Amino acid sequence: MTPALELQQVSKTYPPPTTVTALSDVDLVVRRGETVAITGASGAGKSTLLSILGTLERPSAGTVRIAGTDTSTMSDPQLSGVRAWHIGFVFQQFFLLDHLSVLENVATGLMYRGLPAGERRRRAAEALDRVGLADRMRHRPTQLSGGERQRVAIARAVVGRPAVLLADEPTGNLDTANGREIVRLLATLRDTDEDTTVVLITHNGAVAEAMERQIRLQDGRIVDDTGVTA
Ligand code: ADP
Description:
This protein is α/β, with parallel strands linked by helices.
C-alpha cells in the first residue's frame, strides 16, 4: 500500500542570516494508519519536520511524497489544496476564534471544500459529536476548559476526514488528566476513521509511549526509530 508520508533525503537549511540546518538527510516512511510520536530536545528539528510533512515548509533538498504524490513540483496553490483535502493540523495553542461559536469554529475546517454552509454545519456537528462535545456547539471557546478547547481544535482538524493528522505538542498546555483524554481521543479517531495517520510532537514520555511508533530527532537527524526493524 502507498505510504501516507514519505521523505527521501530531506534537508532543510534556513536562509541567511541564520543559515541553520534544521534537518539533514532525513529518510522517513509513515504507513497509512500509523500513529507516530516525534521526540527530541528543543531545536532538534521537530517542528521543521512536522511543517515539511504538512507541506507548510518546502525542503531545501530531497523529496516529500504525500499519499504517493511528489510535492516538489507543486505550486503553492496546489500545496494549499493538498493541505485542505488531506491534512489536518492541531497546535498546542488551539488557535480557536473566540468570536465564533464552537460549531462555527469547527466548520471553518471545511472552508476550502466548496461545500454549502448548511452542509459545513452538519459535518461540524458530526465531528463535535465524535469528540464528545455535542452539547457545547453553541458555546464560545472562552466558555470551555483547555481540554475541551483542544477537542474543538481536533474536531476542526478532522471534520474533513483528512488522511493525515499532524499535531504539534497537542497536550503541551493541558494538565495530565486532560492530556490523557486528548491522547485517548486521537487513538479513537484513528480506530474509527480506519486509515487516519497521526503524527505528533511531544515532550511528554507517556504521550509518546501511547503512539505505536517513536522517532527521536537530534541535531536534525533521526537517531532512534522504533518503527524500523533491521
Ligand atoms: P524543535 O521543534 O525540535 O524545537 P525546530 O524545528 O523548531 O526544532 O528548529 C530546528 C532549528 O532550526 C533550530 O536551530 C531553530 O532555531 C532553527 N529554525 C527553526 N525555524 C527557523 C526559521 N524560520 N528561520 C531560521 N531558523 C529556524
